[in-house]
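[job 4471] stage=fold_predict status=RUNNING
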Amino acid sequence: MATPLARLALLQPRTLEEALRQLRDEGPLVPLAGGTDLYVGFHFGTVSGRRFLDLQGLETLRGIERRGDTLVIGALTTYTDLIRSPLVSRRLPILAEAARTVGSPQIQNRGTLGGNVANASPAGDTLPVLAVAEAIVVLRSAAGERRVPFGSFYTGYRRTVARPDELVVAVEVPRVEGRQWFRKVGTRAAQAISKVVMAAVRAPRPRIALGSVAPTVVRAPRTEALLAIGGPLAEAQAVLLDEIRPIDDLRSTAAYRRRVSANLLAQFWAETSRIPPAR
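[job 4471] inference complete, writing structure tokens
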């Protein structure tokens, strides 16, 4: 059943500082950015919050820039921004590739990277990319700012370490050395939630992360370690299957996800022998 909109309250801060004060003093509030997930929840009546904080007007949370050797992406940066950014294409091309797989052009124009991170869905298409890039999530409250390594940000299904008075304001990505690789497997090539999504980097220290195979996006450290020492691919596939925890749901079965994950690992290892590293 759809949520009656007349029962909802929307706060529209003009500055980030005002937004953070409202989170502190007038909470609980649900942050609203592109709204691409919340609007679906409104339609199906699954949104529990009734008071929302509209972040769309906070221009300081938009943009992509390089600070030293770090790529800094504002939380309100859209998927379209990521696709069009020369900096992203040069430094982290798999992030642009992941953004292209998100929904339709309308969703890409509205949906934001910060929203994908904060939403904490294990099927978030950009999240395996940020995991293998070993990104930092920048959180800010009225009391100050803190930086959380991406691998420590999620605590469970749709749960994060962010406090109710904190906003995701940016993602920081250090330089990624090695050959980057990304694949999404869904019902269709686009406009579909992933059955399995994998991002990986081939380097002396390989990095592999998957979505839709556990309650959160997951790295595969034991698989990475085995590949780093030249272990057999078949053995690495077996280790990977021990590191993921897929389930049966409406989109797929656990058995299918396990098989696809093993196949993606083999595809990554074969294809990255021919892909030049990002600049």
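[job 4471] summary: The two ends are 49 Å apart (CA to CA).
[job 4471] exit 0
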